[in-house]
Design goal:
It is a single chain. This protein is mainly alpha-helical. It has nine helices and two strands. A two-stranded antiparallel sheet has the order 1-2. α2 runs antiparallel to α6 and α3 packs across α8.
């Protein structure tokens, strides 16, 4: 596996294997979930603020899908592997989400009183945990896959995942608090997912390090399709419910922010 130099201290360079970078960056992106959870647990944030941050994060991810994932997948591996992967990712995510919704995880990103308590729906806590993992893994995988070409994480994709994860942690935790879930459950959930996001990023890099371009494009598009389905099923409904008059504008600002980061980083 490749290596990349990192500056450490006063001008000294320390070699870090790229696979380890993938693990570190994925974990850092996942840690944004814990940050959002901590903010939401410490303060009772207004619902309109949470939904505004959620719509901004949705716009950021849509921009990353268009410019960092789908566009580059087509350029590197061709149209049809990208189309097939995107459709497959959407179908798999929606299918898994339907099953988890039936088990009590339908409103896992909602900040109001929509989430059921364990007494109301036994097993819903486990379903919410799997649902949160389902939402986070595709984003983390593409961080690792994106390091295959240049041996370094994409600043735009990293920023997009981090920015979008903060409102996910905010909103989901607000709903969990109102459903009576404990701090141990909430922070154990988000902390565990942050670690698994790092592992997913590592797997995305290591499993496809020597794969042909068509395969890389397919897997990238699978993740992209899953992310878009996740946005439509979980993030956008929460953003629209409390802040519907400005949801579109806020999402547009998020899109333009990620778009700008993409071009400045390129």
């Amino acid at each position: 596996m490749g290596w990349k130099g990192f500056r450490w201290g006063a001008g000294e360079w320390v070699a870090m294997p790229v696979w380890l970078q993938a693990l570190v960056w994925g974990t850092m992106a996942g840690a944004a979930l814990v940050l959002g959870a901590a903010l939401s647990w410490r303060w009772s944030l207004p619902s309109k603020l949470v939904s505004s941050i959620m719509s901004f994060g949705a716009g950021v991810l849509i921009s990353a899908l268009a410019f960092e994932l789908v566009g580059e997948a087509v350029a590197d591996g061709g149209l049809w592997p990208t189309v097939a992967g995107f459709l497959a990712g959407s179908v798999v995510y929606v299918g898994a989400n339907v099953m988890l919704a039936r088990a009590g995880a339908k409103h896992r990103k909602r900040s109001g009183h929509q989430q059921p308590s364990e007494e109301e729906n036994p097993g819903s806590g486990t379903a919410i945990a799997f649902g949160a993992l389902l939402d986070g893994v595709p984003e983390s995988v593409v961080l690792g896959v994106g390091m295959l070409a240049g041996g370094a994480v994409s600043p735009a994709m990293m920023a997009a995942v981090f920015i979008s994860n903060v409102p996910e942690g905010l909103s989901g935790t607000a709903g969990m608090k109102k459903a009576g879930r404990s701090a141990r459950y909430v922070f154990g959930l988000w902390g565990g997912i942050a670690l698994l996001c790092g592992v997913a990023s590592l797997v995305g890099y290591a499993a496809l390090e020597n794969a042909p371009g068509g395969m890389v494009a397919f897997i990238t598009a699978v993740a992209a399709g899953g992310i878009l389905a996740m946005l439509a099923d979980t993030m956008i409904p929460e953003a629209f419910e409390e802040h519907h008059n400005l949801t579109g504008l806020t999402a547009s600002v998020g899109f333009l922010t990620a778009f700008t980061v993409h071009h400045l980083g390129g």
